[in-house]
From TrEMBL:
One of its GO terms (molecular function) is DNA binding. Keywords: Coiled coil, DNA-binding, Nucleus, Transcription, Transcription regulation. This is RWP-RK domain-containing protein. It comes from Carya illinoinensis (Pecan). It comes from the Eukaryota. Pfam families: RWP-RK. Putative transcription factor. Residues 3-88 form the RWP-RK domain.
Amino acid sequence: KSAGIVDNKKKRAASEHIVSIALSDLAKYFDLPITKGSRNLKVRLTVLKKKCRELGIPCWPHRKIKSLDGLIQDLQEEAKRQQQENEVAAMVVAKRRRMLESEKENIERKPFMELDTETKRFRRDIFKRKHRARALRNHG
């Protein structure tokens, strides 16, 4: 090649590097979108997807984890409000937060797990509550 021409081709990840990627390596990046996770692992997106399939991960759990983080944050805010008003309600909120944190840890260990039915119901209820509040603000 001549000195003035720059090679734009990206290098492939070494196959030893790809083979060495374990579930624990992937778990560090589950809180990121899959494209950023692949960039941080220094592999292409298709390589990462293939590795996920090999490890039994049908889809990247970023959105599940992001959803659980949002629910945990909502519960922490709710706990602060409830603590001032009612001790029993605050304990219920704290218990639910611990349950969500436990579920998040389980998904980080086993990303192929489905969310618990109770968690799905809770997530739906929170979404509906926020949606109704937004609708009232916009139309009321």
